[in-house]
């Protein structure tokens, strides 16, 4: 006779079903983002196209895997709730969830770390972010090893909390550093010049796109720590399991929002009326920016065109560097 479920087990399974539904919804949003990227950003560099392709494959694999878990949990084991509740400990497919979470999290954050370098030009911050990402990857690998041996042991919770904490620290550091340097660059341009709306839009996109993933990562981290301390186990397991399912899709959504917003930011900047400084009128892009140094930012339909401090220093004090985008 099939065993019945306790109220705690019912809450956990219900939370997993809700998280899987959210995962499928976010995958639909990601498919729209991938399609938009393919249609608009045709002039992107090869490495950026490969990054988006890899992200599309990983998120699709993640959704297929979690739908397989839902099929087994709600259909194959429908008549045996006890077996459904222990599915995550006995079957290999549910155990792939933290594996894919680790891969997608580090994969997306590596992109943001690469993006931080041309914006900040601060090698120390970039190195700290790389160390945090490497630590998150290693601790995630160790946690995943325990997933296939003893998923409900304290060692799994310990290493998973370390992984989530390192990933969260790297995320907050990269987001904060990116926003800080963009804000600092915005102070050096004229408020009504062509560069100001671009920088202001980039600051908004950086914060808005990073906030949902950072919040989900924080909730996931707190839930795993509570599980480690044996506090409010049913609620912690429900929240931790659900946020761990949704987190990779939120990171992917954040990266695609950042990439797809470039064209909109460029078009908004083009709508602003401004005049080139007399020294720049009649010059080509190559003449104007040929001797540039220290790029601040990149933007333009997928192609990286750089605003340079070197050119800005040649202009009179009351003028502003103009971005040849």
TrEMBL record:
<keyword id="KW-1133">Transmembrane helix</keyword>
<dbReference type="Pfam" id="PF20152">
    <property type="entry name" value="DUF6534"/>
</dbReference>
<dbReference type="InterPro" id="IPR045339">
    <property type="entry name" value="DUF6534"/>
</dbReference>
<feature type="transmembrane region" description="Helical">
    <location>
        <begin position="202"/>
        <end position="228"/>
    </location>
</feature>
<feature type="transmembrane region" description="Helical">
    <location>
        <begin position="158"/>
        <end position="182"/>
    </location>
</feature>
<feature type="transmembrane region" description="Helical">
    <location>
        <begin position="47"/>
        <end position="71"/>
    </location>
</feature>
<feature type="transmembrane region" description="Helical">
    <location>
        <begin position="12"/>
        <end position="35"/>
    </location>
</feature>
<feature type="domain" description="DUF6534">
    <location>
        <begin position="168"/>
        <end position="263"/>
    </location>
</feature>
<protein>
    <recommendedName>
        <fullName>DUF6534 domain-containing protein</fullName>
    </recommendedName>
</protein>
<keyword id="KW-0472">Membrane</keyword>
<feature type="transmembrane region" description="Helical">
    <location>
        <begin position="123"/>
        <end position="146"/>
    </location>
</feature>
<keyword id="KW-0812">Transmembrane</keyword>
């Amino acid at each position: 006779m099939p065993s019945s479920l306790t109220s705690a087990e019912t809450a956990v399974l219900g939370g997993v079903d809700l998280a899987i539904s959210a995962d499928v919804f976010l995958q639909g949003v990601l498919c729209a983002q991938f399609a938009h990227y393919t249609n608009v950003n045709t002039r992107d560099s090869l490495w950026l196209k490969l990054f988006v392709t890899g992200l599309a494959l990983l998120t699709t694999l993640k959704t297929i895997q979690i739908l397989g878990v839902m099929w087994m949990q709600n259909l194959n084991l429908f008549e045996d709730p006890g077996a459904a509740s222990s599915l995550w400990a006995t079957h290999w497919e549910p155990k792939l969830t933290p594996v894919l979470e680790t891969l997608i999290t580090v994969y997306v954050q590596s992109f943001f770390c690469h993006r931080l370098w041309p914006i900040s030009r601060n090698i120390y911050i970039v190195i700290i972010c790389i160390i945090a990402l490497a630590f998150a990857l290693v601790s995630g690998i160790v946690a995943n090893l325990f997933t296939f041996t003893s998923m409900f042991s304290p060692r799994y919770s310990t290493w998973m909390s370390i992984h989530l904490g390192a990933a969260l620290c790297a995320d907050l550091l990269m987001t904060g550093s990116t926003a800080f340097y963009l804000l600092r660059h915005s102070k050096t341009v004229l408020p009504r010049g062509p560069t100001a709306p671009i920088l202001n839009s980039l600051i908004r996109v950086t914060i808005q796109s990073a906030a949902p993933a950072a919040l989900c990562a924080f909730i996931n981290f707190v839930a795993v720590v509570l599980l480690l301390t044996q506090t409010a186990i049913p609620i912690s397991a429900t929240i931790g399991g659900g946020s761990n399912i949704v987190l990779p899709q939120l990171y992917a959504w954040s990266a695609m929002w950042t990439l797809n917003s470039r064209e909109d930011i460029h078009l908004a900047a083009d709508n602003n009326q401004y005049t080139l400084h007399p020294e720049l009128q009649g010059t080509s892009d190559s003449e104007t920016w040929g001797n540039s140094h220290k790029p601040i930012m990149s933007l333009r339909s997928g192609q990286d065109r750089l605003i340079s401090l070197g050119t800005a220093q040649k202009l009179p004090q009351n003028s502003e560097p103009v971005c040849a985008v």
